[in-house]
Amino acid sequence: MNSIEVHTQHLLAKIFGVLIGHYTNHNVEETDKLYDVSKRVINEDSIHDHYHKDFIYLYRKYGNYFFTKQLYEKANYYLTKAERLIEDEFSMESAKFYYNISIVKQRILEDKSLSLIYSKKALHIFEMNNFTMGIIKTMITIAVQYHLMDRLEESLKYLNTAQERLEEKERIDFQLQSSIEYNIGRVYQKMEDDELAIFHFEKAIDIIDSLEVKKDKIYSYNAMLEIYLKKKNWEKVDHYLSIALEIANINNLSYLYVELNGIKAQIYKSRGDELYYEKQMKKTIDLALQESQTSLVTSLAEELANYYYEYRFYKKASDYYRISNGIIE
């Protein structure tokens, strides 16, 4: 490939990176078209040493695009490609990258320690540059990762520090405020203090109601659904499930939509309706397969396999154990 062709490819990477970055948060259908066109016209074998940053930017935008679609495996694929091209590990752009890949790996890996390494690396760079918004967002992410590792006191510590840093700003970012309230609620939910957890979830919903984009309410609704499912308060379970499914469907939140369908199966099981439980689980596993949600396929298929094994339906159990291990025939 001659120098003119290489230069053209680097310009295309820059142009499509900018366009995909812009449309990802505004028009999903347009972003789908842009991604398809970019894959046809950009030759990724043309990456030249002088133009690494343009392809890093493109891969980051690809990663963000798939993250928004909740296709986390594909997001990880492109962010990993970007990581291989990074030259300055301590730049602000690298910090933003580490933050993004930390969240993606948090979604797809059972062990959260690698995610924590990336998020702490991002936090270190943001603190070096006194980038307050980056510091607050990353502290919230670290808190989530500690929560997922059952290190609840450390999780609360980071959330409280993030809250203090947020209150130091001249203007409070209510999106971040709602995220802090939600995640404090999740910690108390894990501590089985349901009353305090619901208090924080409702505060998060109230804050989001004042914002233009309201889809993030789904996380609090989902959490309250879990609490009322545990309490077998079926009226509230049906109420919050209906709201959450509608939000996930309207906003193309494929990962959450699959998760919620899995919860719907659990509701049938808790009510003793095992026939509908089986049907719903099969439907949910099929959805997860269609959306390439590998981690959900694994957990859901293993759960259904265990169910069949317990009832001595060994052939069915074997089929779903195979699916949980990535063997599709």
From TrEMBL:
TPR repeats lie at residues 178-211. It comes from the Bacteria. Keywords: TPR repeat. PROSITE patterns: TPR. The keyword Zinc does not apply. The keyword Oxidoreductase does not apply. This is Tetratricopeptide repeat protein. It comes from Chengkuizengella axinellae. The lineage of its organism: Bacteria, Bacillati, Bacillota, Bacilli, Bacillales.
